[in-house]
């Protein structure tokens, strides 16, 4: 009798679980963004939230949980119930930059999450102050090398270990020059300093820099990524300008759920996301904001994280960069 009861209980459990999966989603879904409102990650999340809500037939809200260079939001999602109702969109800083530069993170970049997919790539642009004595990437390289023995040209960052810091060090190591990193509190402050001539050059997002470049307030030397950006059609890629693509940083946005979220739920979210990423309106919004819309699945996501952690760890060790 005991065996029969146990068997019936197990069967009932499977049935209830299957019904729960089949009913998903039956209440609102939350997408956590570990950044303040208004940034690139927030823009990506809000576009996806609206369209995913339409696809899944439920409200999808965006919850901003900034702090500790995205650690607070990422940790909250890693510890959330694996039921498909708490998701996260974050940039490569969460999945590869932080794991390469910071010890003892309270989450694992891959093991703590189920990877839904990479939904956007975000090429960056190398920009200079308006009166910098360089008009091309070759000129910038020559200037940086010439100034190495004098302390180096200056470039802006958001502090030690930030993406602009890592990008600047990648460029410096590629061309064999010494440069001086200058920290700022954020993109707006850095942009003001560059336009005002306090800095020699910086790495910025295409969306942020393009209006200033097109207005003549700063110079653009090259974009990272595989092709030119529509906002800056006359600016060559790093490869076109004579440097390997590894000299630049291409950001990206990954969509995840907590680890152990059931496969049927992940499949439902992934299929809806794939459909959303084919939506013409979504693709237009992404492109207008300087992003390249993509849908790279779990394997590509994991391969990219592993490759970048190895790359960024090596760059950080050579450049003595740490966030600890």
From TrEMBL:
<dbReference type="Pfam" id="PF03401">
    <property type="entry name" value="TctC"/>
</dbReference>
<protein>
    <submittedName>
        <fullName>Tripartite-type tricarboxylate transporter receptor subunit TctC</fullName>
    </submittedName>
</protein>
<feature type="signal peptide">
    <location>
        <begin position="1"/>
        <end position="22"/>
    </location>
</feature>
<dbReference type="InterPro" id="IPR005064">
    <property type="entry name" value="BUG"/>
</dbReference>
<keyword id="KW-0675">Receptor</keyword>
<dbReference type="InterPro" id="IPR042100">
    <property type="entry name" value="Bug_dom1"/>
</dbReference>
<keyword id="KW-0732">Signal</keyword>
<comment type="similarity">
    <text>Belongs to the UPF0065 (bug) family.</text>
</comment>
């Amino acid at each position: 009798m005991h065996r029969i009861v146990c068997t019936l209980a197990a069967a009932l459990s499977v049935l209830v679980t299957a019904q729960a999966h089949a009913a998903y989603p039956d209440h609102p879904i939350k997408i956590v963004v570990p950044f303040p409102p208004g940034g690139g990650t927030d823009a990506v999340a809000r576009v996806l939230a609206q369209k995913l809500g339409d696809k899944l037939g439920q409200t999808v809200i965006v919850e901003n949980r900034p702090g500790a260079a995205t650690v607070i939001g990422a940790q909250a999602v890693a510890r959330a119930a694996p039921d498909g109702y708490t998701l996260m969109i974050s940039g490569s800083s969460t999945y590869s930059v932080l794991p390469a530069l910071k010890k003892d993170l309270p989450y694992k970049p891959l093991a703590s999450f189920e990877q839904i997919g990479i939904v956007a790539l975000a090429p960056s642009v190398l920009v200079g102050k308006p009166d910098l004595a360089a008009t091309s990437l070759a000129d910038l390289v020559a200037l940086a090398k010439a100034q190495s023995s004098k302390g180096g040209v200056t470039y802006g960052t958001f502090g030690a270990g930030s993406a602009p810091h890592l990008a600047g060090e990648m460029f410096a190591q590629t061309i064999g020059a010494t440069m001086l990193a200058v920290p700022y509190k954020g993109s707006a402050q850095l942009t003001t300093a560059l336009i005002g001539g306090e800095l020699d050059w910086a790495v910025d997002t295409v969306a942020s820099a393009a209006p200033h470049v097109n207005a003549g307030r700063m110079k653009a030397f090259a974009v990272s990524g595989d092709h030119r950006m529509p906002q800056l059609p006359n600016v060559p890629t790093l490869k076109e300008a004579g440097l390997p693509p590894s000299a630049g940083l291409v950001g990206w946005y990954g969509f995840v759920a907590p680890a152990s979220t059931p496969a049927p739920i992940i499949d439902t979210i992934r299929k809806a996301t794939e459909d959303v990423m084919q939506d013409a309106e979504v693709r237009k919004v992404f492109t207008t904001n300087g992003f390249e819309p993509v849908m790279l699945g779990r394997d590509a996501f994991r391969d990219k994280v592993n490759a970048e952690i190895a790359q960024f760890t090596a760059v950080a060790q050579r450049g003595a960069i740490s966030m600890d």
